[in-house]
Amino acid sequence: MPSYAITGAARGIGYEFVRQLSAQPGNVVFGLIRSKSTAGNLFELAKNASNIHVLQADVADSQAVKEAAAEVAKITGGTLDCLINNAAFLEVEHRNYTFDTYPEEYLAQDMNKSFEVNVLGVIYTTNAFLPLIQQGSMKKVLTLSSGMGDLDGVREIGINSAGPYSVSKAAVNMVMVKYAARFKDEGIVFLTISPGLVNTLQGPPSPAIVQELSLLTKLLKKVYPNWSGKPLEPEESVRLQLEILERATIKDSGAFVSHHGNKQWV
Fold it and tell me: Which GO terms describe its molecular function (predicted)?
């Protein structure tokens, strides 16, 4: 039975990965969450699906993810077919600052937190589950990044905000390339993907969010004039990502692609 572990599974894209993968009866799905208090929907889903296991582990805590991997190993007999690094951090209140306007009292804090979760957290989690992946049949690691971490794309579109998040995503792209180079001979596929511009809001957007999306849409439309201008829903984004994951081979290992399988970020 194919087995999958997904970090950041409490809601949004991570929850949708669990939902879609667990809908296939042959799959065993492990949803890793940082806090039980925000994972009500996931626990509700797990109640009605015997192939879902919910584990608590903060990806920034290396010991916690090692313990989660050990729990997975007990259930699977020491194997895992696919790890999906979905958990991420974005400082929402400060996301519209540019580096030259970023308040100094928050800059180091936000840079460090972004790296702690988006870079070190991915490394901790990948290292913890690698021994299981090596024993699996699929041997795939999918890490969610962002078009905000693509140097050429950001330059072309002209997005100048969300610096700490963007820098950390550019860094994790390189992290996955390093893993790909290290484990190529073992046939492990490391793929980095941008899920697209996805609507993960719970409830209607605030006026500030509406204004922000309007400005972003104008920037994106200049580069992608045929884009509909509408964010993807998690269901569609995850479906597209899983299609790319399924057909990825060792030749693709280390690549950073969009949910379209290329460099089109929306």
Answer: oxidoreductase activity, acting on the CH-OH group of donors, NAD or NADP as acceptor
**Of the candidates 25, 135, 143, 17, which has an alpha carbon nearest to the alpha carbon of residue 80?**
135
Residue 165 is a catalytic residue: yes
Integer Cα distance of 91 and 116 in angstroms: 13
Catalytic residue among 113, 139, 140, 169: 169
Q: What pLDDT tens digit does each residue of the chain (266 aa) get?
A: 899 999 999 999 999 999 999 999 899 999 999 999 889 999 999 998 999 999 999 999 999 999 999 999 999 999 999 999 999 999 989 999 999 999 999 999 999 999 999 999 999 999 999 999 999 999 999 999 999 999 999 999 999 999 999 999 999 999 999 999 999 999 999 999 999 999 987 767 677 777 778 888 889 999 999 999 899 999 999 999 999 999 999 999 999 999 999 999 99
Q: How many CB atoms lie within 10 A of CB 196?
A: 20
237 catalytically annotated: no
CA distances from 264 to 90, 229, 237, 255 (A): 22, 14, 14, 14
The catalytically annotated residue of 4, 97, 124, 165 is 165
Catalytic residue (choose from 146, 161, 166, 168): 146
Regarding pTM above 0.85, the answer is yes
